[in-house]
Amino acid sequence: MAHSSQDKMDEMVALQKQEVGKQKDVSHKESSGAMGEILVGAYPKLLRFATAYVRDKIKAEDFVMDAIERVLRSSKSNDIGNVEAYTITIIKNLVKDDAKKHKPIYGEVPDVADKREPGGIEDIKRVFFRLGEQCQEILDLFGLGYSYAELSEALDIPPGTVASRKARCSDNFRQELER
Fold first, then answer.
1. How far, in Å, CA of 37 to CA of 77, rounded?
2. Do residues 42 and 83 touch, judged by C-beta distance below 8 A?
3. Taking the alpha carbons of 99, 52, 65, 45 in that order, is the dihedral positive or negative?
4. Which of 137, 127, 85, 152 is nearest to 106 (CA)?
5. Distance CA 105, CA 60 (A)
6. Number of Cα atoms under 13 Å in the Cβ half of residue 139
7. How far apart are CA 4 and CA 82, in angstroms?
8. Share of the chain above pLDDT 90, in %
């Protein structure tokens, strides 16, 4: 029987709670259980981020689950301020490590026909893949509904930097499409 991602997530949280139950420190039990609950709530958003980042839902699920497992097993889990941002950072690092072993995160520029309708989906894809990883990431996450504040935390950069990068990337995207 195939398990959904949410089933896997629930199983991991249940296992973490069992491990916590074996520990003697009561305060650690409470905070680890709370950590699991926070991660369950953040799972859909983390999956959307990872899917946009790697462009492959199955790989994204694996990266999210690996990151969640690392957070739950971390001895520093009590000291994490923003669990979601911390987990996104772990996902990004896992993806980058994986990319070093295989191929670039966003893959190669797709081989699409330039002779089709100007401004069509093929042109959009071609231009998007030429933008570079940083612009792809920012524009993807804004497209998924992340706010400036959320992106600032997730990418560990100031909100003003997020805003200027988004503006620059959007301008570059628009200019390239007009060519």
1. 13
2. yes
3. positive
4. 137
5. 11
6. 20
7. 26
8. 6
**Cβ contact 37:81 at 8 Å:** no
Q: Which tokens hold the place of 139?
A: 């524009």
Alpha-carbon dihedral angle through residues 61, 67, 69, 71, given to the nearest 10 degrees: -150
Three-state secondary-structure class, residue 123: helix
DSSP output for 37-54: HHHHHHHHHHHHHHHHHH
Instruction: Enter the DSSP assignment of 153.
Output: H
Residues 96, 107: Cα–Cα separation, whole Å:
12
Strand stretches in the chain, DSSP E: none
Domains of the chain with bracketed CATH: 5-101 (no CATH), 121-178 (1.10.10)
Token pair for 105: 């995160």
Count the neighbouring beta carbons within 10 Å of the beta carbon of residue 42: 18
**Cβ-proximal residues to 99 (8 Å cutoff; 6+ apart), any chain:** 105
Q: What is the largest CA-CA distance in the chain?
A: 67
Q: How long, in residues, is the chain?
A: 179
CA atoms within 13 A on the CB side of 178: 6
> Taking 70 as the threshold, does the pLDDT of residue 159 lie above it?
yes
Six-digit token pair at 15? 């296992």
Q: Convert the pLDDT of each residue in 126-142 to its tens digit.
A: 888 888 888 888 888 88
Residue 114, Cα to own-chain centre: how many angstroms? Answer: 31
